[in-house]
Sequence to fold (293 residues):
Amino acid sequence: SDNNSAVYGCMKYWSDCSSKCETPYTDNCRNRTAVISSCPANANCQYFSDCSSKISSWSCKSGYIQSGNSCINPCDNRTNQSCQYGCQTYWSDCSSKCQTCYPDNCRNQTAVSVPSNATCSSYYSDCSSKCSAWSCNSGYEKSGNSCIKVDPCDNRTNQSCTYGCQTYWSDCSSKCQSCYPDNCRNQTAVSVPSNATCSSYYSDCSSKCSAWRCNSGYTKSGNSCVPVVTCVSWSSNLESTDYIAGPSDPVYNGTCTFNLSNGTTDEWYVNVRPSSEPFSDLSDYCSYYCTNY
Fold:
């Protein structure tokens, strides 16, 4: 007979007739690869339609989770917390075991209402954020669920202050307890620059400077003190002599060169007329202005 029409192909042909199949394949298993060698416990497995011995896919049954090639109860991998104040959350995949505990018992405690002019005096031992008792602040006394003011001003002295009140009685805000010793809070000290000294202080604030002056050897320039520039030496150069009213009335024309203390030079071109100025000649003029530079 000829089994060449087998669905899954020919496994063996006749030795004396290679065109006709002797033994056909009964399934397609040779072309199928199992995703897993055997069906795990607590799993649903699907097999190939053309190879009933090999698994094509599988999944864990309800209530189980995959762990490698097995299906396990998720609770086996979950730790059950032991809680002093009860369980706050359970594992999403294991509702019988606690994941996190309540850190305190606040959900079961009710905070007392603290009235105005009062302070919480104690908190629940199992809920540190909720007040369990209160007491009236200083200067107040309890009246039902309120705190009413006790007027202590009758026993307080009111200070008379030249420069204003610094502190008021904590239990009597209308009376001054201590005065400002001066008016410094309303005065602004001037900024004393380098090479300067405070020359005066405010009359009502002896610790703050009101004016300053430059130290010796310095002069004021804006808000700073700069070194005073002096002449340390000089030289003169007579360039010409004119006579205004004859030989007895000369005018000396020339240059005074001043060597200054800051390392620079200053050159003046001048006309010196002894008959109208207190100088005998150009050198006398240059010498005077070097001394009085």
User: Anything to note?
Assistant: Helices lie at 282-291. The first strand starts at residue 10 and ends at 14.
